[in-house]
């Protein structure tokens, strides 16, 4: 079966020579000059690959002290000061293949087998990516591959759920009742004065479209996606440990992974503060430095949150004003398209604002993160701040539509007004879920298309064009000298590598679209899958052909990004529970069918959800100009009728539906959390084969070190034997034999300590 699977899988494998030897696992240990005789060194020039050699050179350059000043250490500080422009490893020649395909270097192999859109159906050569770019970048592409791969089953289930909605839309009783002209539901006006009464059947299209996403299969899909998020994280943990084992990362110490050097920017800030302190020493004021720092950090953060909510509120005002103006238009076609026009234009405005604020927030997060001394602390805090700002920016409009729109409208005769008599906007007759679906789909697709095509393709090419124009003069001088361009000149013309944070951030925000509000848009995993298939090749092409080669950095995991993913997975359970319970009509339909329906079916559901209003109770100036013979109009709410003693108060049905909604939220959360814990418990973090291989490797390491120490001890014993043999009777030199014995005892203790340390590590 393994042979058959290999033959079936062969067309999807990249033609990478290095992967042919991937099954051979050599016993490995952290490099040490004291144990050179134990390593399998066939050639000193090839013992370390290019990525490792580049990392060693970079470490030497970074630790080199500038002897003329005590405050400058390393190449990174000199770059920060502007002494040097850049420092980067060189690529392995040109990425284009000119000669024989068998003589390709690693860069050419990656370009041909990985960084092409035509290779979208092939697996990624992750081992070669790690060899060329280092473990940190290799883990990013491995994570992106696992995420994209697991989007396939989610997309299939989402298509099935959407297909169920399409198949049942013609038999859905609430939709049929809304479209039935014979029921003759006369609805209350959508605005004061200028708007007329209208018939519910005119919203037939909205009701049918809403059923495509608001149906019983949506609840199943929300549960499925919550479990999918847990399965994705568990699968990635296993994949990550497998890669750590095959890439010899399981035994590296923490100090080898972490960069404990002070940041150049931190040193610059510290030096500037010292200079200011000395300058203002005579005029020193008694201030609380911690309070100052907290204030400096809190105020910009609060300003950014206020800016985001101001943008959302501005779009809300736009929707309210434009809806009122279009409703007052004498053109009947304009009146009929009010909701579609306002919703579409408002979402586009939201998208533009989100894209603009995304760029601003990236710079703000960098500005707010100046205080950490170490590079790892700086990166984690920068990621967290940027994520919080961009999360708020991307999802604030969606949260508004999902949980706030239509909740504070009031009722006919007692509406809530803002800005000189404008009524708060209401949900469509089919509910707010269809508007949430439109909002989510446009923002998600817009961010992916615009960021991929403009920000990731257009802007880098524009920057490259600007750099080429600036370097045009120097290029002409080189042509005059008739010297062929060197590799460092070619690489310097490429864009600098600015880290993996933008790449991760884009995918994390997309993961939020896929998991947080997936109950309103089952096709979100499908669009994410299509985007990621292109994204992998786009990022690969960028790293291979358009960016300078980054310094290879060792990393055991993806860092803080895993914690963010885990938190979003748990948060998605709560969000989907509230979306199904409060945004969709799933709970009101269940309550009606099992508590109020006389036939146990959905017949009469629309009439049950519409309350009555006496048109004579309109406030002066708010009633329609042409009311005709209409005495009662309907509006969507659970309130007592005008002939009730408690007219227009919330009815008993309202409290029953509210109780059912809250009960569903509690039940859904506990059920999904329990199932998630079961899935996480049932899937071990470390694969069984890896566990066995790790134990075997540690045992072999113990045997190697014991054999080495045994040989050393035997050498000491032989020296002791020679000492005893050569000593003459009556000779007064006992101290030499005693020293040898003591040396033997020390070696024995050392061997015991080594074995104990390895065994303790194995136990842990």
From TrEMBL:
Q: Name one GO cellular component term.
A: plasma membrane
Write down the membrane topology: Multi-pass membrane protein
- Please provide the record's keywords in A-Z order: Cell membrane, Glycoprotein, Membrane, Transmembrane, Transmembrane helix
Positions of transmembrane segments: 140-167, 217-236, 340-362, 382-403, 508-530, 662-683, 736-760
Entry annotated with the keyword Cell wall biogenesis/degradation? no
Q: Where is the Anoctamin transmembrane domain?
A: 129-697
Annotated GO molecular function terms are:
intracellularly calcium-gated chloride channel activity; protein dimerization activity
Asked if the Swiss-Prot or TrEMBL record annotates the protein with the keyword Calcium, the reply is: no
Superkingdom of the source species = Eukaryota
Q: Where in the cell is it found?
A: Cell membrane; Membrane
- Could you tell me which residue ranges the Anoctamin dimerisation domain spans? 2-126
What family name appears in the similarity comment? Belongs to the anoctamin family.
Q: This chain belongs to which protein, by name?
A: Anoctamin
Q: Which organism is it from?
A: Scophthalmus maximus
């Amino acid at each position: 079966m393994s042979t058959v699977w290999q033959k079936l899988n062969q067309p999807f494998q990249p033609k990478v020579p290095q992967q042919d030897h991937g099954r051979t696992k050599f016993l490995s240990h952290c490099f040490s000059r004291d144990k050179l005789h134990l390593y399998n060194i066939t050639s000193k020039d090839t013992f370390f690959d290019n990525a490792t050699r580049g990392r060693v050179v970079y470490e030497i350059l970074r630790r080199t002290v500038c002897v003329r000043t005590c405050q400058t250490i390393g190449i990174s500080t000199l770059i920060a000061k502007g002494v040097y422009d850049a420092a980067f490893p060189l690529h392995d020649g040109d990425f284009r293949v000119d000669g024989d395909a068998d003589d390709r270097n690693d860069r050419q192999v990656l370009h041909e087998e990985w960084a092409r859109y035509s290779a979208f159906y092939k697996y990624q050569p992750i081992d070669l990516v790690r060899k060329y770019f280092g473990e940190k970048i290799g883990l990013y592409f491995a994570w992106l591959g696992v995420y994209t791969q697991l989007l396939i089953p989610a997309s299939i289930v989402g298509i099935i759920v959407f297909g169920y909605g399409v198949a049942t839309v013609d038999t859905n009783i609430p939709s049929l009742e809304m479209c039935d002209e014979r029921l003759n539901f006369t609805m209350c006006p959508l605005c004061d004065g200028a708007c007329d009464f209208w018939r519910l059947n005119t919203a037939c299209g909205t009701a049918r479209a809403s059923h495509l996403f608001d149906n019983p299969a949506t609840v199943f899909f929300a549960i499925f996606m919550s479990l999918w998020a847990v399965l994705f994280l568990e699968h990635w943990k296993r994949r990550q440990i497998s890669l750590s084992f095959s890439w010899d990362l399981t035994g590296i110490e923490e100090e080898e992974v972490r960069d404990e050097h002070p940041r150049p920017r931190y040193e610059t800030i510290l030096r500037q503060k010292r200079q200011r302190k000395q300058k203002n020493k005579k005029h020193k004021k008694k201030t609380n430095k911690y309070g100052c720092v907290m204030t400096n950090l809190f105020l910009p953060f609060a300003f950014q949150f206020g800016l985001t909510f101001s943008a959302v509120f501005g779009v809300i005002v736009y929707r309210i004003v434009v809806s009122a103006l279009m409703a007052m238009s004498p053109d009947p076609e304009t009146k009929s398209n009010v909701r579609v026009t306002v919703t579409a234009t408002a979402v586009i405005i939201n998208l533009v604002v989100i894209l603009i604020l995304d760029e601003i927030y990236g710079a703000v997060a960098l500005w707010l993160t100046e205080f950490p001394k170490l590079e790892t602390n700086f990166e984690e805090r920068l990621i967290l701040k940027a994520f919080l700002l961009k999360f708020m920016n991307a999802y604030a409009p969606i949260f508004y539509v999902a949980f706030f729109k239509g909740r504070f409208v009031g009722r006919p005769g007692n509406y809530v007004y803002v800005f000189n008599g404008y009524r708060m906007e209401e949900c469509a007759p089919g509910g707010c879920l269809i508007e949430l679906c439109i909002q989510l789909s446009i923002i998600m697709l817009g961010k992916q298309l615009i960021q991929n095509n403009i920000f990731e393709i257009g802007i880098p090419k524009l920057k490259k064009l600007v750099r080429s124009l600036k370097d045009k003069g120097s290029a002409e001088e080189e042509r005059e000298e008739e010297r062929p361009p060197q590799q460092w000149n070619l690489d310097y013309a490429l864009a600098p590598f600015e880290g993996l944070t933008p790449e991760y951030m884009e995918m994390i925000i997309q993961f939020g679209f896929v998991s947080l509000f997936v109950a309103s848009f089952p096709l979100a995993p499908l669009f994410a899958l299509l985007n990621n298939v292109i994204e992998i090749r786009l990022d690969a092409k960028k790293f291979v052909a358009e960016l300078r080669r980054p310094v290879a950095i060792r990393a055991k995991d993806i860092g803080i990004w895993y914690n963010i993913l885990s938190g979003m997975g748990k948060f998605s359970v709560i969000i989907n529970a509230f979306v199904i319970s409060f945004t969709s009509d799933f709970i009101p339909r269940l309550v009606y069918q099992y508590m109020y329906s006389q036939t146990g079916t959905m017949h009469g559901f629309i009439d049950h959800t519409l309350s009555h209003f006496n048109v004579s109770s309109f406030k002066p100036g708010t009633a329609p100009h042409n009311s005709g013979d209409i005495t009662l109009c309907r509006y969507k709410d659970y309130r007592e009728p005008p002939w009730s003693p408690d007219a227009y108060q919330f009815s008993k049905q309202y409290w029953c539906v509210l109780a059912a909604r809250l009960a569903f939220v509690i039940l859904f959360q506990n059920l999904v959390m329990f199932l998630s814990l079961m899935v996480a418990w049932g899937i071990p973090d470390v694969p069984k084969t890896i566990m066995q291989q790790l134990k075997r490797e540690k045992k072999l390491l113990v045997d190697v070190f014991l054999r080495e120490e045994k040989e050393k001890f035997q050498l000491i014993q032989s020296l002791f034997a020679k000492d005893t043999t050569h000593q003459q009777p009556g000779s007064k030199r006992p101290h030499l034999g005693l020293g040898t014995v003591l040396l033997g005892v020390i070696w024995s203790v050392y061997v015991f300590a080594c074995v104990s340390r390895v065994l303790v590590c194995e136990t842990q």
